[in-house]
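Structure (tokenized):
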């Protein structure tokens, strides 16, 4: 249920912006220690464990100040290789990431929550050069719990009234419009100019917001098109940035990815990958448009579906090391959760939320999600690959977004130990998240012209999907 609401300063209510199980959780000491580490501590530790990494270059990257992609959530999987090498792998980056409601309070007695930290250190910092007069708004199309949390935090930090406004892609009478590239919001029956907007639009946001806007938007639409909600361009951004940082012993770790695959070509690529792959609609999110192909039945069912877009990406599947005799081309394996009393291990991923601040890039919060069913040791027992490999909690029921919180793994004293990770894994995940964020911000800069408009020819050369381009333009 989406609602419209106004928020006054000094009225932040914790119980409205966290899951109940999170409010009652105590943050794990390892996670708390990680979040309180200085950049120099992180750099020293990471380079100690990765001797080929150039300390000066890593320091330069952690001091990076994003121009467009200032707030990022990276989805990471803890994997191992045939030789037993452990690493965090980036599955995707998100330009409107959830996470606050799933993060135990770092300091339960402080009014300075992680909502407030993001607003104070990133959103407020982004408004330094804003000269436009008007109101401040938060627009959203899902996740009322966090969207309203940001609205209330903005009211506290900016010390003025904030307007939370629903803005769905199929609104017949939207309360947001643009005139002369300025955003206007319908408030109390009249249209008011918006000087700055905190955006929580997740579903095809480019069909509601323009690339160029006189109203400051955080994150702007270009961050979505350049990789924050476009997995195809993100894959290219990662490869370009990897070429730039390779000489410094740094790299964004990703599964082997083939981009710009048309639907009729998919069976050929799946066959080349050994008959097992992950197929992604590049512009979807919240677990939508991701298809795990483990059996021929999975592929046949995928090929029977109709899609709005022409292009897909295909990635090597991350599976179980016990399947290696069947998965000839498999290179990465899920580390998964610590076995339970039934000796069952679950696939899980970790969301790392980070932001660009005046001091550089910093972690904000983190949580994990596990699959619905345990990972079978015998490949023949796989009947529904998504149930054992899919981790996203979001699902739609009667056109309403809901979250399967039973699979939420908190970074608290109860759940954290089940993940089988330590502070070095959190540091690795943070570095991977940072590199992916910088890669997408650099791609954003490349795609924006001198007047703030999208370089259409360049974008089309990177992402020649007519249906997407029609939506954007």
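Design, position by position:
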């Amino acid at each position: 249920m989406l609602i419209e609401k106004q928020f006054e300063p000094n009225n932040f209510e914790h119980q409205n912006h966290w899951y109940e199980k999170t409010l009652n959780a105590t943050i794990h000491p390892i996670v708390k220690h990680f979040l309180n580490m200085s950049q120099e501590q992180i750099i020293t530790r990471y380079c100690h464990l990765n001797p080929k990494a150039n300390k000066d270059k890593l320091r330069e990257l952690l001091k990076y100040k994003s121009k467009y992609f200032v707030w990022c959530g990276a989805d990471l999987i803890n994997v191992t290789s045939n030789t037993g090498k452990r690493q965090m792998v980036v599955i995707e980056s998100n330009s409107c990431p959830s996470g606050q409601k799933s993060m135990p309070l770092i300091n339960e007695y402080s009014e300075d929550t992680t909502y407030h930290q993001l607003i104070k250190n990133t959103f407020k910092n982004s408004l330094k050069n804003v000269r436009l007069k008007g109101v401040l708004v938060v627009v959203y199309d899902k996740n009322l719990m966090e969207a309203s949390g940001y609205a209330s935090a903005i009211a506290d930090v900016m010390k003025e009234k904030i307007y939370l406004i629903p803005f769905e892609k199929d609104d017949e009478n939207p309360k947001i419009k643009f005139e002369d590239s300025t955003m206007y919001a319908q408030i109390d029956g009249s249209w008011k100019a918006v000087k700055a907007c905190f955006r929580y639009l997740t579903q095809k946001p480019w069909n509601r917001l323009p690339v160029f806007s006189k109203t400051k938007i955080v994150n702007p639409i270009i961050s979505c098109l350049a990789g924050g909600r476009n997995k195809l361009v993100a894959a290219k951004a990662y490869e370009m940035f990897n070429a730039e940082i390779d000489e410094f012993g740094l790299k964004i770790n990703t599964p082997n990815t083939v981009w710009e695959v048309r639907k009729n070509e998919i069976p050929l690529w799946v066959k080349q990958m050994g008959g097992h792959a992950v197929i992604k609609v590049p512009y979807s999110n919240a677990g939508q448009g991701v298809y795990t192909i483990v059996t021929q039945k999975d592929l046949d069912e995928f090929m029977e579906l109709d899609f709005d877009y022409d292009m897909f990406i295909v990635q090597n599947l991350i599976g179980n090391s016990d399947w290696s005799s069947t998965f000839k081309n498999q290179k990465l394996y899920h580390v998964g959760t610590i076995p339970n009393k039934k000796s069952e291990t679950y696939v899980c991923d970790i969301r790392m939320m980070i932001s660009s601040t005046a001091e550089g890039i910093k972690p904000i919060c983190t949580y994990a999600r596990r699959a619905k069913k345990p990972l079978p040791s015998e490949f023949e027992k796989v009947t529904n690959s998504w149930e054992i490999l899919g981790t996203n909690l979001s699902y739609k029921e009667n056109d309403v977004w809901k979250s399967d919180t039973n699979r939420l793994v908190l970074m608290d004293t109860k759940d954290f130990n089940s993940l089988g990770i330590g502070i070095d894994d959190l540091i690795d995940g943070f570095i991977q998240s940072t590199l992916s964020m910088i890669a997408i911000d650099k791609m954003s800069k490349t795609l924006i012209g001198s007047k703030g408009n999208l370089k259409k020819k360049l974008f089309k050369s990177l992402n020649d999907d007519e249906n997407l381009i029609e939506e954007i333009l």
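Reviewer-requested clarification: Residues 27-95+227-252+317-442 form one domain. The radius of gyration is 22 Å.
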